[in-house]
Amino acid sequence: MHGFILYDDMERALINSRPFQRLRRIKQLATTYLLYPGAVHTRFEHSLGVMDLATRIFDLLVLKHRAELEVALGLSDRADTKRLRRILRLAALLHDIGHAPFSHGPESLLPGGHEQMTKRLIEEGEIQQLVEDGFYQAGIKVKDILPVAIGPKESQKAGLELSAQSQFLTEIITGTFGADRIDYLLRDSLHTGVKYGQFDADRFIHTLAFIAHPETGDPMVALEKGGVHAAEGLLLARYFMFQQVYFHKVRRIYDHHLTQFVTELLEGKGFPVTDLNAYLLWDDALVEHELVEWGSAGRSRVARDILARNHYRVAYEVPLAELDEDLADWIGPIAKQLQREFGEDVWVDYDYKPFAPARELGMPVVDGKKRTSWEQESRLLKTLPPLGFARVYARNDKPLRKAVESRARELVGSSVKQSA
Predict the structure, then answer these.
(1) pTM: predicted TM-score of the whole model, two decimal places
(2) Where does the HD domain lie (predicted)?
């Protein structure tokens, strides 16, 4: 997808490490392959792609804004710039190594989420040794990579210092228009065959720019005005991929069933996060092997149902017109009531998110010396509705589904009337 991806001997050592090679056995889109057969791509190739894209973005920004960047980032010479580029590449390469089997599918069983496991795998064991031994001459330590790899929010939770340099680098990787998002949209679109995920990534990357924050002087990634349409293409691609893939009703229920099975497999204890060697044994292959064993032997109803594609079906879906930002407040009690009445035979799934969260609107748009905002320059943001859904699933039994549908419709209707 990106053509040749180049790396040096030290980066090769990290790629060949056990934690990174494990990513070959972690699917990017969990159980989506049960719906889109081609979606068997992994975190391994995604991580290589993010490293390559992040490097391209960094190199272009340096090419266009070297003098301003050196001042804003406190770089004294070309060696400092080279070191920063190296940190970016390592962080991009390692940013996903903590993922549980099937990525986000059963992540609720991973205490602290995959970012905190990524942190542990970088600062302990084989990765830590490779970084400290291989990059010490370049003045790079694990503490330089960590905040860039796990991002601002998780760094704050972990008490890590996020310098202006780290903030700038992590924005290139995980920001609104970062390398991570660019890669997963293009890659997921390619492997699922959903063309809506395509956009002009080359045009977009070449219109990224750098500015200094008007008050703090800290470096910020900006967008040239000529790149607004390319950026809109990226946001539209993300919007449609959520509708067609990430929020798909069948994909969501299979992820739920998988989480149910892994919970059984772990005996309700969660993944073994205290022992890194034990954790690294957990991958898709292990889970799939146990799924077949347990399902074939009749040890697990949910495993048997997954193998037979006897997943729960949607009994009722809340109309889009009734979804709002308070969805969680009123659908949560309904979910509990349905579970009290129907037990494990029902599952309520819901999500609601604005098309572009407030933090994403803050990306500056530059036109020569003139500076505006992304929100001011794009009419698209004012016309596309938020992304959301609320679905009530029921066990694959027609009379049960009818009963669940009737009760769900009654509860939702009553709730909507009360809030009107």
Answers:
(1) 0.94
(2) 43-185
Residue pair 294/300 in contact (Cβ under 8 Å)? The answer is yes
Find the helix packing angle between 113-123 and 142-158, rounded to 10°: 150
**Alpha-helix residue ranges (DSSP H) falling in 222-326:** 228-241, 249-265, 276-280, 284-297, 301-307
- How far apart (Å, rounded) are the C-alpha atoms in residues 104 and 31? 10
- Cα separation, 346 vs 392, in Å, equals 7
Q: Is a pLDDT exceeding 50 seen at residue 420? A: no
How much is the CA Rg of the chain, to the nearest whole Å? 23
Q: What is d(CA 355, CA 33) in angstroms, rounded to the nearest whole number?
A: 26
For 381-407, what is each residue's pLDDT tens digit? 778 888 999 999 999 999 999 999 999
Please state the φ and ψ torsions of residue 388, each to the nearest 5 degrees: -170, 160
User: What does the pLDDT look like over 90-109, one tens digit per residue?
Assistant: 999 999 999 999 999 999 99
DSSP letters, 311-372, are --EEEEE--GGG--TTHHHHHHHHHHHHHHHHGGGEEEEEEEE-SS-GGGGG-EEEETTEEE
Short-list 329, 275, 52, 314, CA closest to 180: 52
Distances (CA, A) of 259 to 247, 250, 268, 302, 340: 16, 14, 11, 10, 21
- DSSP 8-state class, residue 244: I
Written as one letter, the residue type at 172 is I
Say whether pLDDT at 362 is over 70. Answer: no
Nearest to 165 by CA among 218, 118, 115, 241: 218
Strand partners, 222: 209
Task: Please state, in angstroms and rounded to a whole number, the distance separating the CA atoms of residues 240 and 420.
Answer: 30
Q: Domains of the chain by range and CATH?
A: 9-251 (1.10.3210.10), 253-353+386-419 (1.20.1250)
| Residue the block writes with tokens 């809030």 | 419
- The Cα–Cα gap between 223 and 212 comes to 13
Whole-number Cα distances in Å, 376 to 2, 119, 207, 209, 362: 32, 37, 17, 18, 10
Q: Running DSSP on this structure, what letter comes out for residue 111?
A: T
Q: How far apart are alpha carbons 161 and 156 in whole angstroms?
A: 8
Most confident among 23-37, 125-139, 192-206, 362-376 (mean pLDDT): 23-37
Residue 76 tokens read as: 């004294």
